[in-house]
Amino acid sequence: MIQYYQDPDAERLSIALWDLARPGRPANEREDRMFNVVKPLTGGVYLEVDTEFEFVVHPAAVLGDLADILQARLSAEAIAALGTQVVNLRGQMVAASTAFAQVFNGQALPQPEGGM
Amino acid sequence: MIGYTPLPAGQSGGITGALGMNAWSAGAVVDLDTLISQGAVVKAAYSARKLRQGFAGQCCKLRGNGTGTPEADIPFTNGALDKSAVAALIASGGGTTAYWKTWYEQSGNGVDATQNTSANQVNYSETVFSTGGVGGAAQSNCWLESIDGALLMAPFAIWAVCCTGTYAGLIELAYFGLNGVSRNSSPQRRLIQNWGVSFNSAATGLITTKLNLLAVSNGASSTSWVNGVLKLTGDAGSNSPSGAMRIGASSNLPPNSWFAGAGASIAEIIVFGSDPSALPGWAGFVAGSKSYFGTA
């Protein structure tokens, strides 16, 4: 299922999420990301989350840029807990939408507000 | 293996048997170079086989789904996609499958088809085409995309080797001309909302369970052809990108339920700048392709 989350940091968030699978990527892969980012003419920036998408958390994964991105919306304690969660999930196949649900901003929408 | 073999000037071309190998290899017998020498203009060429003698690049870049999320460039071996390299990629992380990240373009125009968003990458499969192909499993919202200002400026024609999911077991070679698609104000939808040229049974036309090959181009008087049959005509507008192609299945397409069914796969796409079917080598090209991919 595809869900949309309005998030001005969607691009950075998507790249930071992919860092959990492939940290330390070479320069030509730095823009690789986990989920698509949609920018309808009606306004806003949306993260397009495929709830069925799974990946293996890298054995050396750390919270990384996610911590900076999430500072504005999560408490320091919540971010620290997320960091612990990343470490605990190393080597495991997870669905980002459930394993790291707290990183997604606000309400999940079936499509961007005002349509595509 | 039977394939088309280029012969020296002054001799007629033809189909050769297993012992009549051409200068490439037993496995790669398509003679795209001959078509080009006869006047064919190739704007883009993607394949699970090496299409041109002089192409020195890789076939594709794939991502495995195992630990470490390995990626690897997959080379050609004897003109064919190196399936052992794919197997090694998958095994290296203890994974179970691989996905297409880049399908390298062989014409020299440098318009690789790519997908850097992992959740949108298309399955790699050898179940439909033993040569390796795009798709295979049921998927939605997954595609490879190439964009170039001159790639698909109308008119153009597309040759593809594909199999549809709706018609299980049906493998067809589709050849059609296409001129112009898309009329939508959203930048995102411009690329993907179009007069979808889809690979399916020529008898039924456009259907909704398939692996799509979608193309976008400018053109006020636009037409879409499938297997030589005119499917759609009208004004596609002029606000679309100057050239783009999307290979795969997207849930963003109208209707939103469009997806690629299991068994749908694409193993080769060549975008020509004009109709190549009248060229002397075309019949041999088609015959060699059918033989190589095992299509009827």
Structure overview:
Helices cover 28% and strands 16% of the residues of chain A. Chain A has 116 residues and is an alpha+beta fold. In chain A, the strands form 2 sheets. Chain A has a 3-stranded antiparallel β-sheet, covered by helices on one side. In chain A, 35% of the residues are buried. The model of chain A has no long low-confidence stretch (mean pLDDT 92). Chain B contains 4 helices and 19 strands. Chain B is globular, with a radius of gyration of 18 Å. Chain B starts with a strand and ends with a helix. Chains A and B meet through strand 4 of A and helix 3 of B.
Number of helices of chain B: 4
Q: Can you give the helix content of chain A as a percent range?
A: 25-40%
Low-confidence stretches of chain B: 1-29, 166-170, 176-209, 224-231, 236-242, 251-258
Find the structural class of chain A using helix and strand composition. Answer: alpha+beta
Largest interface: A-B, 26 and 21 residues
Give a count of the beta strands of chain A, DSSP E runs of length 2 or more.
5
Indicate the percent of residues in helices of chain B: 10-25%
**How many strands appear in the DSSP assignment of chain B?**
19
H and E string of chain A: EHEEEHHEH
Q: Are there runs of chain A of 5+ residues with pLDDT below 50, and where?
A: none
**What coarse outline of chain A follows from CA principal-axis ratios?**
globular
Compute the separation of the termini of chain A in Å: 17 Å
| Beta fraction of chain A | 15-25%
Classify the oligomer: heterodimer
Trace the largest sheet of chain A across and list its strands.
Answer: 1-3-2
List the helices and strands of chain B in order. Answer: EEHEEEEEHEEEEEEEHEEEEEH
Our count of helices of chain A gives 4
Q: Distance between termini of chain B?
A: 14 Å
Strand content of chain B: 25-35%
What is the gyration radius of chain B calculated from CA atoms?
Answer: 18 Å
